[in-house]
Structure formats: C-alpha cells, structure tokens
Amino acid sequence: MHAPAKHRSFTQLIEFEIEPQQQSALVSALSRQTERLAQHHSGFLSASIQASEDGRRVLNYLQWQTREAGEAAFQAFESGEQDFWQLIRAHQAKTVTFGSFQVLHSLERSPDHGLHCTLVG
C-alpha cells in the first residue's frame, strides 16, 4: 500500500534489549538525544520513548515529515556529541532493532474528546 508522496510521514522505531539496571540511564540518554534531534532538524513531528515494565526493553519512536528528514537526523544521531553506537555500548544493549514505516492511517483524541482519523491514500 503506497500513499501519495505529499501525504506521507515517516516513522523510525528503534527497540533496545538491555539489562534491567540499564533501562533508566538509557531512557535518560535517549531523551536528551531525541530533544537535540528535535531542536536541530527540520521535519520533526513527534517522538516518544517507552520502557517495558520488566526493564528489558526500550522503544524509541520518532516521526518525521519525510523519509529524507528522518534519515538526515539519524545521520546526525550517529555522529553527534554522543554517537548512537557509543550509546548502545554504554548502556550494554544486547539487541537493537530498527524499523522504518510510512504512516498511512492515524487516530488521535482531541481536547474535546472527539476522535480524529487521518487516512492517507
């Protein structure tokens, strides 16, 4: 399924598998790095960092206006003040999984509690 180029957004999902004692430090480091990416790269839409209850996984979700914006930011992530690979080593990540996705449908609740659906395609 392909969306018209003008309506596409791009999502990067990065999942870390770590030892539970590393989770808090990794979340803090990802939070700082994600804020830097958001401040210094155009095309940023949103981000979240999620932690599993068992302490073994962290999910970093970044959404960009275009694939190109996301890829440019990630290149900076790889070579920044604390590069991405140093982050992985410092927090003893056992596994890092990358996923890239086009957003084709989204649903969100507005302040008035209504549901707003966006279909792309």
TrEMBL record:
Q: Name one Pfam family in it.
A: ABM
Domain ABM residue range list: 10-75
What keywords tag this UniProt record? Monooxygenase, Oxidoreductase
The Swiss-Prot or TrEMBL record annotates one GO molecular function as: monooxygenase activity
The answer to whether the entry has keyword Oxidoreductase is yes
Q: Which InterPro entries match?
A: ABM_dom, Dimeric_a/b-barrel
Q: Which domain of life is it from?
A: Bacteria
Q: What is this protein called?
A: Antibiotic biosynthesis monooxygenase
Source organism per entry reads Pseudomonas umsongensis
